[in-house]
From TrEMBL:
Alphabetical keyword list: Membrane, Transmembrane, Transmembrane helix, Transport
Species name: Pseudallescheria apiosperma
This protein's name: Major facilitator superfamily (MFS) profile domain-containing protein
Taxonomy of the source species: Eukaryota, Fungi, Dikarya, Ascomycota, Pezizomycotina
GO CC annotations, alphabetized: membrane
Residue stretches spanning the membrane: 99-124, 144-162, 174-193, 213-232, 244-268, 274-296, 395-419, 439-457, 469-488, 500-523, 535-554, 574-596
Keyword Chloroplast: no
Chief localization: membrane
Mode of membrane association: Multi-pass membrane protein
Keyword field contains Membrane: yes
Residue ranges occupied by any Major facilitator superfamily (MFS) profile domain in the UniProt entry: 103-600
Any one GO molecular function term: transmembrane transporter activity
């Protein structure tokens, strides 16, 4: 199978990106990098060569750092004590680098804001009688749907596509800052609306204005949802990238929980209209904190290492890496590895070579940029490697909507009001306050459960694995939704309420460590640097687009499949919609099993080899090799070893050629001449260009 300039065989071998170079070639390549791209390091060539050799033999030097010597001889690179501690810590601690804490706080606040906004929308639904019209025949349920769904549709169709040009102009930090300003201003504007129904008689038309404000809010959500996971994935140590990205889901859950807590607090206001305004305004607080945190956060080094761009600057990338890594060795190692992967990218951005030349006028330059923008989206389908990434990330993004979690996230309070028997829109607020309170308490429990059970995924998403977490938890979500659907048909209100709450929480327990964090993790890591914003935006667009459709049409779907209003106008919930989503979980399981690869514990630049094999071949292996093995193991207690789809050599400790090269001591000692060629295993996936070194990014 052909993949651009790549040759892909039946079996994919995963190996170190520098394994095709011998030690002398590493010296030459590192020197060439300094002379051609990093002249600011011209007086530190030896240090760059040290870092390059450590990158080539990373497993060997990890063993040296732990006090073992696999080869028995003196290692060519003599590590300092600080360097040894740093190499060990980056494999043992999820956040081992001091500079990563700034990124951690920013990602956490961005995710917290996402959850806070989402829960603020749901909290406002409790007071729907103050901002929309409600009728007994459900003919105006679309008002509720479009008001809740427009933000997610705007995020998917406008915000996510806009994230690429904004990232190109302002970087990851600038894009997130712009998004926080949009969310802050629209939250203040929504709380200040003058056309709410002050008496709560369900005759207001304020929903139309809310739709417009939430559309702008959604654009900010989309830009932030793409830019933040990319910032996290591009700055994290590759081994723990999944756990670093788990911050997103964990703090989205915390944002939902805290926002529900504030909704309960605002409920204490004697005037419901004041409670509604406070709920709508509350997201401005985390938005302000997010904007402030960005002042102290490092920019992604990879943002400065994209060739032929106006912001290409290896020196700035190195400065950011020094903030993000504990030692100079780590910073130089990562700078060299990212440069090497980008340099030999199959996507050489030929249009970029023209666009920044001074001879081109503004109009041609703009037209080139526009063509380039759309050509990258075309690449996501036309190029096999990118197509594989797109299928994997979009499958999981779509699966998150199939699992049904957003029924509870968007309509938890509304659903519980149905379970409790509904409320009356006759202007008598006292009759409704107890129902409002109980519905908010149940939503509070949902948010708390979502947060607490996301914690077990910390670390395990990188050891147990993304794919395995999904396959273990999706069946549990299907069972919980089916049980909740059946419980909604129970005629006894107390039993019905208890059972629905229990099974909703069980569903959330299964969701939080797997289907919660994995979609955003895959979206931000699956694509090469040249197409990362485009690929990530497509995956997150898929997620948010179907979230928007769910928010829009769920009220109508619920009415069509069992939900209805009784003769008094009170809503009652049928279980048909929940049962439908229980079936959707089965579909999600099949899609994940056949189409989603495992990416745990891989550097971003190494994922090219994971996605270099066709989906047809991967799915065939799962269906015809892995699945029969699994059934034999479960039903016949077979002891056959698990079949491996990949031949992984990255964890093999290969010692450098010590005798011919001599020592590479800490900075200050010259590097001797060439050693013998490192006869590592021949890559099954190789770059056929002369001198390319087998890399693709």
């Amino acid at each position: 199978m052909s993949l651009g300039r790549w040759r892909v065989e039946d079996r994919v071998r995963i190996q170190n990106p520098l394994s095709s170079l011998n030690d002398e070639q590493v010296n030459i390549d590192a020197t060439r990098f300094v002379n051609s791209k990093a002249r600011f390091l011209s007086d530190r060539v030896e240090e760059v060569q040290r870092a390059a050799h450590v990158a080539k033999h990373i497993r060997f030097y990890e063993q040296i750092a732990r006090g073992y010597n696999p080869g028995g001889a003196s290692p060519p690179v003599i590590l300092t004590d600080d360097e040894k501690r740093a190499l060990v810590r980056e494999k043992e601690k999820i956040i081992s680098e001091h500079g990563m804490w700034y990124v951690f706080v920013t990602v956490a606040l961005a995710a917290f804001l996402q959850g806070f906004v989402q829960s603020s929308f749901a909290g406002a639904n409790v007071y729907e009688g103050y901002w929309r019209r409600i009728t007994d025949d459900n003919k105006r349920d679309h008002e509720m749907g479009i008001t809740n769904g427009i933000a997610y549709l705007a995020a998917a169709l406008i915000g996510c596509p806009l994230s690429d040009p904004i990232n190109q102009i302002a970087g990851r930090r600038g894009a997130i800052f712009f998004a926080s300003i949009l969310i802050m201003t629209t939250s203040i504007a929504a709380a200040s609306l003058s056309n709410f129904d002050e008496d709560g008689t369900a005759q207001s038309t304020a929903w139309k204005t809310l739709v417009g404000l939430r559309l702008i809010n959604g654009i900010g959500m989309g830009i932030k949802a793409v830019s933040t996971p990319i910032l996290a994935s591009e700055t994290a140590i590759g081994y723990w990238r999944g756990s670093a990205l788990l911050v997103w889901q964990l703090w989205v859950a915390l944002g939902i929980f805290v926002s529900n807590s504030f909704n309960l607090l605002f409920y204490l206001s004697p005037r419901p209209i004041v409670s509604l305004r406070l709920i709508l305004a509350s997201p401005m607080v985390p938005a302000i904190f997010l904007a402030i945190s960005l002042i102290f956060t490092p920019e992604s080094p990879r943002f400065y290492l994209r060739p032929q761009r106006g912001h290409y600057n290896p020196e700035k990338a190195y400065r950011e890496l020094k903030r993000l890594r504990n030692t100079e060795l780590q910073a130089l190692r990562d700078l060299y590895l990212v440069h090497r992967s980008v340099e030999f990218s199959d996507f050489d951005d030929r249009l970029d070579e023209r666009v920044d030349t001074p001879e081109i006028t503004l109009r041609p330059k703009l037209s080139v940029r526009i063509r380039q923008y759309f050509s990258r989206y075309r690449d996501l389908i036309a190029n096999p490697r990118l197509r594989n990434s797109t299928i994997s990330s979009c499958t999981v993004a779509f699966g998150q909507q199939l699992c049904g979690i957003n029924i509870f996230a968007f309509y938890a309070t509304t659903l519980f009001l149905k379970v409790l028997g509904g409320i009356k829109y006759d202007g008598n607020e006292d009759d409704n306050r107890e129902a409002w309170k109980r519905a908010m308490l149940y939503s509070f429990g949902f948010g708390l459960t979502n947060f607490l059970f996301g914690i077990p995924a910390i670390g395990t998403i990188d050891t147990f694995g993304r794919r395995r977490w999904l396959l273990v938890t999706i069946p549990g979500m299907a069972f919980a939704l089916l049980a909740a659907a059946l419980s909604l048909e129970n005629p006894d209100p107390n039993t019905r309420t208890t059972l629905v709450v229990i099974f909703m929480l069980i569903h959330t327990v299964f969701y939080s460590p797997a289907m919660g964090p994995v979609p955003f993790t895959l979206a931000s890591e699956a694509f090469p640097l040249s197409h990362r914003e485009h690929g990530c935006s497509v995956a997150i667009t898929t997620n948010l687009f179907f979230a928007g459709l769910l928010a829009w049409f769920y009220p109508l779907l619920d009415s069509a499949l069992g939900g209805h209003r009784n003769s008094s106008g009170n809503p009652r919930g049928g279980g048909g919609a929940l049962g439908l989503f229980a079936g959707f979980n089965v579909l999600a399981f099949v899609l994940v099993y056949l189409l989603v690869e495992e990416t745990k514990q891989r550097d971003l630049e190494d994922l090219d080899q994971i996605y270099a094999v066709s989906k047809r071949k991967f799915a065939k292996f799962q269906a015809t090799v892995h699945l029969p093995w699994f059934f034999r193991r479960v039903f016949t207690c077979s002891t056959d070893p698990k079949p491996d789809f990949y031949d992984d050599t990255t964890n093999t400790v290969i010692a450098p050629d010590v005798g011919a090269r001599g020592d590479i001591s800490p900075p200050g000692s010259p590097i001797p001449g060439a050693g013998s060629e490192d006869k590592g295993p021949i890559a099954t996936v190789t770059d056929t260009r002369p001198g390319s070194g087998g890399r693709y990014a």
